[in-house]
Write a structure and sequence with these properties.
The protein has 763 residues and is an alpha+beta fold. The chain is 28% helix and 25% strand. The longest helix is centred in the C-terminal third of the chain and has 30 residues, at 607-636.
Length: 763
Amino acid sequence: MPSMPRPPKPASKATPKRVAGLPTPQQVLDFIAQSSEPAGKREIARAFGLKGQENIQLKALLKDMADEGLIDGKRTAFHRMGGVPRVTVLRVIEIEDGEAIAIPDTWQPDDATPPPRLRLVERGKGSALRAGDRVLARTEEARAGWRAHPIKKLPTASEQLLGVVEIDGAGKGWLAPVDKRERHASPISDLGGAEAGQLVLAEPAGRSPRAGVKVTAVLGDPLAPRAFSLIAIHKHGIPNVFSEDCLAEAELAAKLPLSEEKREDLRHLPIVAIDPSDAGDHDDAIWAEPDGEGGFRALVAIADVSFYVRPGGELDREARKRGNSVYFPDRVVPMLPEVLSADVCSLRAGEDRAAMACHMTIDAQGHVTEWRFTRAIVRIAEVIAYEEAQARVDDDRAAPYLANLWACWRALASAREKRDPLDLDLPERRVMLDEQGRITEIRLRERLDAHRVVEDFMIAANVAAAKALESKVAPVVYRLHEAPSREKLVALKDYLATFDRKLALGQVITPGLFNRMLKDIADESEKALIMEAVLRSQTQAYYGPGNVGHFGLSLGSYAHFTSPIRRYADLLVHRALVDAFHLEQPAPKDDLPPRSGLAERDRTDLGRVSEAISTAERRAMAAERETIDRYVAAWLSARVGEVFDTRITGVQRFGLFATIIGLGGDGLVPVSTLGAERFSYDEKAQALEGEQSGIRYGMGDILRLRLAEANPLTGALKFEPEDSAGMAIEPRGKRELPLKHKGKHLAGKRGRPGNIRHQGRRK
């Protein structure tokens, strides 16, 4: 009687029953699928207890299975055909909802079969991996698709490097970095046709640093217009190219008809959009009129992006990955294709547009007493620049709809004053370019009442959105800003003590406490220093589904509702409102996802996507800030040798960091330039002190410094004392500030007095 084939050994340590004969092909496939380790010929033979001649028969069986297309791989590690090896090398292709998505590093079943997408399950909170990373991982096929558990991170085979080609005297090429934190150039083994002075992309030529790098793409002149933002885009891995599928879906969505039967018709109202003069899109507009009882009826109309961008489609996938639009002086990297962001979704004057309308009733004291949300059709009466709107109001040339807006705003401002949110009047740098993209001026943006009008209307609508969703017990993506940590408050307390000012930590810390502190300071120089210190004490705002309030705005519930063209968080809030208030409008086109409400995965878990878009926002802010720094350095490169009033923003053992007052741009003052004497570093006080002279340089001191270097490629500046002999100079701050201010310090990171554009919209 022939022997029965033996079953495979399971993935656990249990030993299978031994029976004579070869396993069946199905038993081999089951063993490969269940094994927690690479399943090669040796492992299969051991699992089934095969010896001698049976090993030869197993080899033939495995060859037959491979020929039949049942298995694939090598003798040391087989896997099911069309599947993924149990342990293999994966390459991360994108970060989705905070999780890394990867594909096999080498995938060659056939050109028609796309590689499987594996969701990497990492330990800890958030993804530490980035697109392009390679990992050795253990894989598994689950009902929801392939998953992988990283074992270790591997050297990146094609990690892109951004730099400028330099040729030394011997004719050898070097890649000079464009990141000011990198101080060493890399040898170039293959120029790839690049020439000296060109901005290039490169990748390691081998695993050893000695192998150098090879140029993979020539990007052109690093000092040409638009190059600075290009550097930031590549450095931070900001997605800036839409796929053909995404663009095709955008074109299809743009043709969706507006059904007047299912939308509230608001085209009769003189709704206006007030925006920056150079705005490329208009996603919010406002209207108000007196209600006859001392209060106002108000409307905030927001582009109905959720009607066009539906969960599950390519548009949504790309917007989710980007998280937000990124604004540079010379370009915008939009969250949505331009056919939507700059055309169909943009609230243009005189054109019918789909909008999500927030209707509010505001009493005479500026409190929002009622609200409701509808989907509407609007026709914007006018798009006005902030400066133009302000000029009309100031000159009594304002049309009734502008006068009504200002009147309603005065009521909102009254309520805001009683709420007493954090009031830090921080300068915002604005880079002015000509039509060729060349810098014409860098100046601080003027803060007008027109800005405050729009801001307070937007805040009112954001609060209404959050509370409306809470009233329906619906999911909310909150905009969260927590109170300062005790550690930062202690550091602020120590800093204020150097000004003979006290901060009692036993009291309830509120924004109003900081406002009163600043209001009591008459000296403008001292006020600027303390304002920066208060700013550094604040936590960073973020998105999340668990409400902790917004400390800076003194609000208990706050969500971003007003900018869905450029923020994915707002789009999620719109979708939640669609569900909560039954505003669904199915797409009449079969090729588009039918629903415009929340996706099921977001309805059950908003935490993951909230974390992902918070990370994307921080990435955008870093890229925008660094680009501004490069523009500032380019602007100052023609002024090397000039002397500027600067303020110390950081102190380290190797020198001082200073920023030009009124312009921004941080630069290093090497300790070697401060004089011939030895300087000791007081880490606790964040100060450098001359051992012979006793001259002390601390945070906030005002110095006259000469600009020694300005590097537009890295955004780095270098200063030296005004005295060309290199003698230490007495900090001006010692003469202007109270005597006890000597040795003042601030524990924590150095800050930047200049904020990047659109900072006000990120509250």
